[in-house]
């Protein structure tokens, strides 16, 4: 008889519920189109998004599919609707946490609750709307999100560590707040410097991945659309 000690099989959680099996490419990403990711300085990123009031619609389903496809091509772990130019309170996520577990899903009209008594964790954080820039940022290590799915069914999620950081980052996008807004001025300037250096390489990679996946790549202006 063979014995295995201390080895744990990673779990995939779809909207907080374990699923087995689950494909490497989410079905939404397979169906979706690749959209241009808005960039810091564009008004849609700096304005609170609107509540979703119509559920189970083809338009909402298409938005979520497109957000998953766009996130996959950009190699992101989370994406908010304003990042594809849509001012609605929706975000998607697909990430692997510190334990090796995968978390996938979307949340509509999320309400964020940060556990301010949890330890603060400082990690390098980036944003697909500030391509190529990473800066250290302290975040609470525990966060909860309550909302609904695209059909209006209740969603309640709790995140620890990296997952908590994702929930905070994406929920704050919907209030018009970027991680950049939390940085000290010198770190803000450094983030934009990194962006200026890395943006062409990041956009080239997004183009290449889209082609590899058989998707039409998004088109980006030569200079950031936000003007910063």
Which structural class matches the secondary elements?
alpha+beta
Task: Return the CATH architecture.
Answer: Alpha-Beta Complex
Q: DSSP helix count?
A: 4
Q: Report how far apart the termini are.
A: 63 Å
Helix content: 25-40%
Q: How many β-strand runs?
A: 9
- From the spread of the alpha carbons, the general shape counts as globular
> Considering the protein shown, what is the CATH homologous superfamily?
Peptide deformylase
- H/E order of the elements? EEHHEEEEEEEHH
Overall pLDDT confidence:
96
Count of distinct structural domains = 1
CATH fold topology = Peptide Deformylase
| Strand proportion | 25-35%
Low-confidence region ranges:
none
Biggest sheet, open or closed, and with what strands and sense?
Answer: 7 strands, mixed
Topology:
Layout: E1 12-14, E2 17-19, H1 27-31, H2 58-73, E3 78-80, E4 90-96, E5 102-114, E6 120-126, E7 134-140, E8 142-148, E9 154-160, H3 162-173, H4 185-212
Parallel strand pairs: 1-5
Antiparallel strand pairs: 1-2, 3-4, 4-5, 5-8, 6-7, 8-9
In short:
It is built from four helices and nine strands, in the order E-E-H-H-E-E-E-E-E-E-E-H-H. The chain is α+β, with helices and mostly antiparallel strands and 228 residues long. Strands 1, 2, 3, 4, 5, 8 and 9 form a seven-stranded mixed β-sheet that branches. The protein has a two-stranded antiparallel ribbon with strand order 6-7.
